[in-house]
Amino acid sequence: MNNGFPDNFLWGGATAASQVEGGYDQGGKGLDTQDCKPQYFNLTSKEKNDWKYKQMTSEKYELAKTVKGIANYPFRFGSQEYTHFKEDIALFAEMGMKIYRLSISWARIYPNGDDEEPNQEGLQYYHNVFDECHKYGIKIFVTILHYAVPVHLVDAYGGWKNRKLIDLYVKYAKTLFENFKDDVDYWLPFNEINAGRFNPYNGVALIKDREPNYDLAVYQSLHHQFVANAKVVKLAHEMIPGSKIGCMIARFCHYPATCDPADQLTWLHDEQYTNWFYTDVMARGAYPKYMQRYFDEHHIQIQMEPEDADLLKNYTVDFISFSYYFTQVSTASDDWAKTDGNLVIANKNPYLKSSEWGWQMDPTGLRITLNELYDRYQKPLFVAENGLGAHDTVENGKIHDPYRSEYLLSHAKAMKEAIKDGVDLFGYTWWGIIDLVSCGSIEMCKRYGMIYVDADDEGHGTFNRLKKDSFYTYQNLIATNGSEL
Ligand code: BGP
Fold first, then answer.
1. 179 CB near ligand 1 (under 6 Å)
2. What is the model's pLDDT at position 343?
3. pTM score, two decimals?
């Protein structure tokens, strides 16, 4: 039996370019889809999390493109890592982080997405970031696409439903491989690829009111991302021998509400449609049969090219990563109580406590998830995101956040148990290691960081950094490699 975390376990932190960088129009960067997501500051917290305010519409999108400056577009200011990266990476090193998961902004490298030549200033920015990480011996895990797509690709091509996006994306990835092959340790083509289904604007750059056949557009777009994923796996292995390239989903762990067979069947379908489908394609290399039935019953006919099946089969991923925040209940009943959760609205579990944003916290579910994934694929696993969004209060220059430390330690303990169960888990990156703009609720006050950023929802503040109590909890966890858990 393994006793716990291996010596070379990769403890780290994660961010995404659109949420942390700011500098949305600096260094030659083009406008991207996340820069266009508005926040309405006069709404209550409940309203802000209501899907009707969060859903991207053509009207909001077209307006955003005409507005200059940060106005009510929080992704445009982020946490200003674009100008603070040296200070941030020094703090990551002080914490003891072994790996930093960050994303590269497509629009910083190709401002329109289909430009002939890459933007040298954008490439230089990431060279500087990576050099700074190397200075402290911090390894690098790069997400090639974390939701933010250059707006020109929506306007001229209609987003990922257009097959031409595959080649444009592969060209972008190739540029990254050429420039950063000696810098990056782990590559990830797509953040939470199943977002294409649960949040198509984020995942596949679709605006719902423009799609007469929305479901088809979603699955067609996902197919293009699967093919792009396979092509990029192939390219990485050819261009960078020995490179490690993985996939990622937002992993939604479900429990059947009761032992009623109807609930069990709903649970099976929930697991298949929200989780297994994606990892089955990218790790096993083919569309699973259960999806064919789903597509037939929903009249979804995906256009596939003859070479696609071989690409999927021959270029599967080296490792599987996932985000894990909460668990939910599967039930055949229509009137089960719901959470206020904003990643997806979930069915309530009476045995679990929820975060302030309605996410049901469940460390045991992480152990279960790790076991299920490893059992099915037998590939190394990486927890690419896990964390707690909460309001924090600064008192005399200190932030006491025992809730965040508790969340961290309970989930770390669950990982340790999973490793003892025999799971091959090689890393963990806390989301977001530094406060950043929340992806779903588009606000600064939903703070995940162990490093505080002095900025409010509207971007007012000094943007000074401050260590929270949880900073020291994680520092000790890393230094002791989980032996005190
Ligand atoms: C994941 C995203 C992240 C991140 C996280 C927390 O889905 O990959 O970008 O933001 O969720 O979500 P939120 O910011 O909505 O609280």
1. no
2. 60
3. 0.97
